[in-house]
Amino acid sequence: MKPTRLRSDGPRIGAGAVSNPYTLRPMSDAPLLETRLHGVHVAAGARMVPFGGWSMPVQYASILEEAERVRSRTGLFDLGHMGRIDVTGPDAVPFLDGLVTSFVAKIPEGAIRYGLVCDEKGGPLDDLLLYKTNANHVFVVANASNKASVLAWLEEHTGSSDVRITDRSDELAMLALQGPNSQAALQPLVEDLDLSEVGYYKFRFATVAGIPDVRVSRTGYTGEDGFEIYFPDEESERVWDAVLEAGAPEGIAPIGLGARDTLRLEAGMPLYGHEIDREHNPIEAGLDFGVSFKEEKGDWIGRDALAAIKENPSRRLIGITTDGKRVPRQGYALFHGDDEVGAICSGAVSPTLGTNIGTAYLPVELAQAGRTVHMDIRGKRQECVVCDIPFYSRKAK
Question: Is residue 303 part of a domain?
Answer without folding.
Answer: no
